[in-house]
Amino acid sequence: NEMTLHCNKFIQTFETVIKTPKKSKSDVFYTGVDLGTACIVLVVLGSDYQPVAGAYQYANVVRDGMVVDYVGAVDIVRELKEELEKKLGTTLVYAAASLPPGTDGLDGGAIKNVVQSAGFELTNVLDEPTAANQLLGLTDGAVVDIGGGTTGIAILENGKVVKVADEATGGTHLSLVIAGNYKFNFEQAEKYKRNVKHHDELLLVVKPVIQKISSIISNQVKGYKVNDIYLVGGTACLKGIETIIEKETGIKTIKPINPMFVTPIGIALSC
Ligand code: ATP
After folding, report:
1. 161: containing domain
2. How many angstroms does the Cα of residue 244 sit away from the middle of ligand 1?
């Protein structure tokens, strides 16, 4: 549908500018900073809110929305910022960031401090599903964010988030099952899992974990009118995961071309 097309086109443009930043005459840039459990992503938009550059790095500085390596997190965000500034020939000033739902009181301050210590002026902090929906533009349905440590669910009705939940099953659990199955250590399993060439074979191995994620979704949406599920987050990159989730939940499941970039782009759009 039209929404998916718009979303996919935006993601494609972003993937292009990660490789080759776009020369821009903008006098102002907006940066989205996504501090994830597995990956830190920076998305830079020009004054017309179109992608001009981006960069990401795998890192273990955040766990389930909690900053566990503060200095490491600041260093990576600063390095990525400087790398992008060099490529664009400008200084990046404004940034937005996001928090997993329900962690604001807990650790929100740390994420804000990381972004500011890296040299940004923070203009906005929003929760992850709301950020994702800045790009998706859903009015009704569920945004399901399958990340590293957790699966986050946000239910929208008439354009408003009416429920958010976050439960502890995600890509880490897939990796643990893969490690056990192939006698890999965790890092080897992570690397093996991220290679799309292995996805057909892996889908069978991790199916029980995806069924568990599906039952989490089913329980959370119970009592709400949810006709569509929109999958985002790194773990949604697993080829075929949408088919299992759709079958198990009985709800139409839609996945953008690169679900990993939906939340980071949405954060930048909110800047
Ligand atoms: P959380 O939401 O739990 O804090 P996060 O925001 O870091 O985590 P994401 O970056 O959305 O989460 O997703 C990270 C997870 O996605 C990791 O488990 C990682 O292994 C997995 N992942 C990343 N790329 C792929 C891929 N191509 N195929 C399968 N899984 C992937």
Report:
1. 138-256
2. 18
Complex-level ipTM: 0.97
pLDDT of residue 153: 94
* Residue 155 and residue 126 share a domain: no
Which atom of ligand 1 lies at the shortest distance from residue 63's CA?
A: 4
Same domain, 20 and 126: yes
Pick the atom of ligand 1 nearest to 147's CA.
12
- For the chain, the domain total comes to 2
Q: Which amino acid type is present at position 175?
A: S
For residue range 230-267, what is the model confidence (pLDDT) as tens digits? 999 999 999 999 999 999 999 999 999 999 999 999 99
| CA 148 – ligand 1 centroid, Å | 5
Atom of ligand 1 nearest to the CA of 38: 7
d(CA 220, CA 238): 22
- Quick: pLDDT tens for 51-64: 999 999 999 898 87
Tell me the average pLDDT of the chain.
94
- Supply the CATH number for residue 196's domain: 3.30.420.40
Q: Residue 24 Cα, ligand 1 centroid: separation in angstroms?
A: 31
DSSP letter for 138, please: -
Residue 151 near residue 172, CB atoms below 8 Å: no
Structure tokens at 70: 């503060």
The span from the CA of 16 to the CA of 160, in Å, is 32
